[in-house]
């Protein structure tokens, strides 16, 4: 069957299903035209390479417009006999403009059609924020949206359901008011925003945490360097040299050692191999604590253009940025 180079452990979800301990992110960011798109099947080819080196978990969302190429790559590898469908874990997300209960199943069916698959392993509510088609604020309560996700699970279109970009109070409300408990919360986690309170709460409730943007300031964002630890940070270098690893591998392992599923993303084959080769060493509790000290509560995903929405999950700022989803 599989000839993967890396063997990835799994966590048990609160519904008894398994989830691989690392995922490949597939958000390509924004360019001058809006949401960046894969050119010449580049992302599909990355997924093909990722499956070969051992990735079995792929994280996407309807708004990323990458579902089609992920589905194509997975189907190709199934046809080659490299994997079976049940070997691959696919996470996708419901976008904010489809938050009415009756829209959820329709939205997931559209995602499945793009992927050419019969089900996803995990369906997340991308944000607690409901929006109308013109991106004006909708008053739809995310609990109504959650009922729609519950319907999708009951229909077998999603094996598991969860939330993304929720704060602690919002997660708590879904846990207490929902009929099906979320299995996962996906949030931004890196050394500059360690999210200890939310991670501790979720894990105490049996909710697995997935962390996006795991490298924080180690990598360039929006074409520039931001303040914070870099690849040559002395502490990270010292730890990396001790284990014969790179500083990005140390940061990914820091997440794994906190029982958080990291979601690194790359289009480079060399980095694909590097990022998954993190399951043969462990950090000490002292090393984890030292990395925790980089925490400055810095978010790189901060949609302040939504901050007047009643369900905006983060603190408000003085100068919100322009909404990239609204075409001028």
UniProtKB/TrEMBL annotation:
Gene Ontology MF annotations: oxidoreductase activity, acting on the CH-OH group of donors, NAD or NADP as acceptor
Name of the protein described by the UniProt record: Aldo-keto reductase AKR2E4-like isoform X2
Site label Lowers pKa of active site Tyr, positions: 93
Taxon lineage: Eukaryota, Metazoa, Ecdysozoa, Arthropoda, Hexapoda
Active site residues according to the UniProt entry: 64
Binding-site list for substrate: 126
Domain NADP-dependent oxidoreductase positions: 22-294
Organism: Vanessa tameamea (Kamehameha butterfly)
